[in-house]
Design goal:
Layout: E1 32-33, E2 42-43, H1 45-57, H2 61-68, H3 72-83, H4 93-102, H5 106-114, H6 116-119, E3 121-124, E4 133-138, E5 144-148, E6 156-158, E7 168-169, E8 183-186, E9 192-195, E10 209-213, E11 221-224, E12 236-241, E13 244-248, E14 262-265, E15 270-273, E16 290-297, E17 303-312, E18 321-325, E19 334-338, E20 351-354, E21 367-371, E22 384-388, E23 396-400, E24 411-414, E25 420-423, E26 439-443, E27 448-452, E28 463-467, E29 473-477, E30 487-491, E31 509-510, E32 515-519, E33 526-532, E34 536-538, E35 547-554, E36 558-562, E37 576-584, E38 593-597
Parallel strand pairs: 31-38
Antiparallel strand pairs: 1-2, 3-30, 4-5, 4-34, 5-6, 6-7, 8-9, 9-10, 10-11, 12-13, 13-14, 14-15, 16-17, 17-18, 18-19, 20-21, 21-22, 22-23, 24-25, 25-26, 26-27, 28-29, 29-30, 32-36, 33-35, 33-37, 35-36, 37-38
Helix pairs in contact: 2-3
Length: about 600
């Protein structure tokens, strides 16, 4: 995206600069040009604050050299300049301009350490959402579908291709019931399925189901599906592959948990209750203390329940479980079996996400991470655990390094390079007021976190997020700040590492296990290809996220890619629309192109 610049050196009083942070009016988020005019270089305000904090924190030239790699002469000169400032501290952007004038080599060095190539960059868009929303779904048309945080029978489409001029659209019609507090997932034909909801509390409409068709004329249209077998408010929906979706949890009109699950079949347009083996339903039930439970389709075809989710609505303590189908091709019966326990079972309003599915693995092993959450009445957690296994070992929860701070109501977005962007939430748990501005990038390969640029506005209850085809991340919503209508977009560090691979022609549809060609003028530097399933996010829950790595061979002007492997119904990559990203040897992704996996 393009950034406007402010002329000259912007003077900013930083009362909190000694703590490394400062209040941030919206105008400060645009890059700032540092004098002298002959050698201007744009630098964003977040980077400038971090540079100021670093220059003020180090006690001597030796430590500044160690922290930045600057030579001793430059480091000493910077500290002598600092000593002449009021309070022997740098406090304004003019101070940075003076450092730049002192030694032009400083900023290329420090920018690489503390700027967007290392920390990414958040931008607040110059236009807001028209109204409060609580659901965000990326469509295969590239638009984002929003649903309101209210009982209004409305829906809204946003075109993220223009981050300067607002482009909001409305579909040809609206659903005939409120879908606030519904569950949703992508259907294999590109429509989006919605189950239950009904508004601010359980209602007779909580038994209804709808589909949104983004390909219909006049910006898409809504249609009603048959009634579900059971009424559900706050359910989760999981795409199973084979044109089937699982609907689980929620509460009924008495606000009691709905134990039975049901399956929707696209081919028959019917709902079927899930039974236990030999007709015994009890082993297929959970007490569902978590509404909007964190559920994930594993590469094995099983369903993992992580205990992350939106609400501790029923005051129970259901352990993490794995559901195994009696017949994965005909998912009508199966049973839940507890997993080895979490070290920290209180994961209410935490977030769980399936980590990238590796290409060419002999055995597709589950890897699902859970971030944050906590006990709503006590505190938020900073802990992270991953459900994983090696070889023939039974998968179990493994504790990973903690996040930098606790997060309640947090969000986690899978990026095309396989890393996870973790953000948002409250540091002080349920009912808290300490919104988090920090952002962290989790690397599943090294199990490490890297601090990123801070968001401008805290996002607590009812946040929104989506990975966009540009490779950027959108966030909005959250009730913990007066600015919940604002839209922010994060450009990850990979967007500051050089030119992006380009995608030319490619097939509109691809198949499992079959190879296809993608034309690209950058074939010689393309190293990886991934499919990314579009997000369908609400209430700290998204069952859809998955990054599927693909095998590829480089040719002249093209790469040949093999479709995802596995066996029917291909749970590692259920049929439907995906974003195809090509990544180069530096991990820089292309702009995505949507393909239909059949």
């Amino acid at each position: 995206m393009s950034h406007s610049t402010l002329p000259g050196a912007l003077v900013l009083s930083l009362a909190l600069v000694s703590q490394g942070l400062a209040a941030r009016p919206a105008a400060q988020r645009s890059p700032i040009e540092l004098a002298p005019p002959a050698r201007r270089t744009p630098i964003d305000a977040g980077t400038a604050r971090r540079v100021l904090a670093l220059f003020n924190r180090v006690p001597d030239g030796e430590e500044l050299t160690a922290a930045t790699g600057l030579d001793e002469a430059s480091a000493s000169a910077i500290l002598r300049l600092r000593a002449r400032r009021s309070g022997a501290r740098f406090a304004t952007f003019e101070d940075l301009a003076d450092v730049w004038a002192l030694d032009p080599r400083v900023f290329p060095t420090v920018y690489g350490l503390l700027g967007p190539p290392r920390m990414g960059l958040w931008d607040t868009l110059p236009y807001p959402l028209p109204y409060h929303c609580a659901h965000s779904i990326l469509l295969h048309t590239g638009l984002v579908l929003f649903l309101p945080e209210s009982d209004m029978l409305m829906s809204l489409l946003w075109d993220p291709s223009d981050l300067v001029q607002p482009r909001f659209l409305v579909p040809a019609n609206e659903p005939e019931a409120s879908l606030f507090c519904s569950g949703h997932a992508q259907l294999s034909d590109g429509r989006v399925f919605f189950a239950g909801g009904g508004g601010r509390g359980p209602a007779p409409d909580s038994m209804r189901a709808f589909a949104f068709d983004p390909d219909a004329p006049d910006n898409g249209s809504w249609s009603e599906l048959p009634l579900m077998r059971l009424l559900r408010w706050y359910p989760s929906v999981v795409a199973l592959g084979g044109g089937k979706l699982l609907i689980a949890s929620g509460v009924n009109l008495d606000h009691r948990p709905v134990a039975p699950m049901e399956v929707y079949d696209e081919a028959t347009n019917q709902f079927t209750l899930v039974e236990g083996p030999s007709g015994d339903p009890s082993v297929s039930y959970l007490s569902w203390d978590e509404t909007y439970p964190g559920l994930h389709l594993l590469p094995t075809g099983q369903i993992l329940f992580t205990r992350a989710g939106s609400g501790d609505d029923n005051d129970r303590d259901t352990p993490t479980q794995v559901f195994t189908w009696t017949d994965v091709l005909h998912p009508t019966a199966g049973r839940w079996v507890p997993t080895p326990p979490l070290a920290f079972s209180d994961r209410t309003k935490g977030f769980s996400v399936q980590l990238p599915i590796r290409a060419g693995a002999r055995r597709l092993l589950p890897r699902v991470a859970v971030f944050g959450g906590g006990d709503p009445d006590v505190a938020a957690r900073s802990t992270v655990e991953v459900f994983e296994g090696e070889g023939e070992a039974r998968p179990a929860w493994v504790r990973k390094p903690d996040m930098a701070e606790p997060r309640f109501h947090c969000m986690a977005v899978l990026l095309p390079d396989g890393q996870v962007l973790v953000m948002g939430g409250l540091r002080d748990g349920g009912g808290g007021t300490q919104g988090s501005h920090s952002t962290e990038l989790y690397d599943p390969t090294s199990s490490t976190f890297a601090r990123q640029d801070d968001v401008q506005w805290a996002r607590g209850y009812h946040p929104l997020c989506a990975l966009l085809p540009s490779g950027q991340v959108m966030i909005a919503g959250g009730r913990e700040d007066e600015h919940e209508l604002t839209l922010e977009v994060f450009s990850p560090p990979y967007l500051f590492r050089g030119p992006r691979p380009r995608i030319g022609s490619l097939p509109a549809a691809i198949s499992h296990e079959r190879s296809f060609d993608v034309e690209t003028p950058d074939a010689e530097r393309v190293e990886r290809a991934v499919l990314v399933r579009p997000m369908a996010f609400t209430h700290n829950t998204d069952t859809e996220q998955r990054v599927v790595e693909l095998l590829l061979n480089r040719g002249v002007g093209r790469v040949t890619i093999k479709g995802p492997g596995g066996t029917p119904p291909y749970p590692n990559a259920p049929a439907g629309y995906y974003m195809l990203f090509l990544l180069d040897t530096d991990g820089v992704p292309s702009v995505a192109r949507f393909v239909r996996l059949e």
